[in-house]
Amino acid sequence: MAGDLHQRGERAVVLLSGGIDSSTTLALALRDGYESFALTIDYGQRHRHEIDAARRVAQSLGVSGHMMVGVDLRAFGGSALTADIQVPRSREPSRMSSEIPSTYVPARNTVFLSLALAWAEVLNSGHIFIGANAVDFSGYPDCRPEYLEQFERLANLATKAAVEGRVRYRIHAPLLRMTKAGIIRAGTGAGVDFSLTHSCYDPAEEGLACGACDSCLLRRRGFEEAGIPDPTRYA
Questions:
Q1: CA-to-CA distance for 83 and 106, rounded, in angstroms?
Q2: In DSSP terms, which residues pair with 15 in a beta bridge?
Q3: Which of 17, 12, 20 is CA-nearest to residue 42?
Q4: Domain at 11-226, CATH from 3.10.270.10, 3.40.50.2000, 3.40.50.720, 3.40.50.620
């Protein structure tokens, strides 16, 4: 991936799911002077709570634009987030980092980054931000640095703007090598109100977090290690 050198005021498309990582990523892009356009994907996930959280975060932080795009990945299924498959609970940290769980959504980040690339090209922006993390993550292959590097190469091969030399695309993943505690500290410093975010894969109907899925466990541990009160409402 390219470095973070930029001119203040350049446009950026930031993928925003409404969770800790993407919200912190948006806050860091804004802090660093990017005119930020948030992109939230409604991909047919199990619940609407993270979509609502993304809307709250975008409004709270202030963005130049917030687009919601629907791509219903339930048509393919293959994931506990898009099909009738049980969400894993109470997994040990060692298993989270070594096994790809059933919550992996086939090709999700590739779909998301492709949509972000399309909007970036229309906005004449060469910057795409994603909250991928290769330290505290659930074993997803599309959160690894080598994947992001290859997508950046693809972006610069597959777009009219890049081929004509008008734009050089950069995939920014500022959280890539940070722990969850480090992300929470960074987000707090950049102005994220984490009470607005949502992480749980399998919340109760009223939005209370289950406290046992991988995402809840990583979130809870992150706040504990950061020494910051966890605003999450658990069932």
A1: 12
A2: 39
A3: 17
A4: 3.40.50.620
Helix (H, G, I), strand (E, B) or coil at 51: helix
Q: What is the pLDDT of residues 61-99, one digit of tens each?
A: 999 999 999 999 999 998 888 888 887 776 666 665 567
- Cα–Cα distances (Å) from 150 to 1, 142, 145, 175, in that order, read 8, 11, 9, 18
Q: How far apart are CA 207 and CA 9, in angstroms?
A: 36
Q: For residue 1, which amino acid is it? A: M
d(CA 103, CA 141): 12
From CA 92, how far away is CA 214, in angstroms rounded?
Answer: 9
What is the Cα–Cα distance from 165 to 116, expressed in whole angstroms? 19
Instruction: Break the chain into its structural domains and give their ranges.
Output: 11-226
Give the separation between CA 97 and CA 180, rounded to whole angstroms. 13
Look-up of token digits 């890539």: 176
Mean pLDDT of the 17-42 span: 97
* Helix or strand (DSSP H, E) at 30: helix 20-31
What does the DSSP 8-state code read for residue 73? G
88 DSSP 8-state letter:
P
**Structure confidence by residue, pLDDT tens digits, 95-150:** 655 678 888 899 999 999 999 999 999 999 999 999 999 876 556 888 899 999 99
The two structure tokens encoding residue 27: 């806050």
Q: What is the pLDDT of residue 5?
A: 45
Taking the C-alpha atoms of residue 50 and residue 53, their distance in angstroms, rounded to an integer, is 5
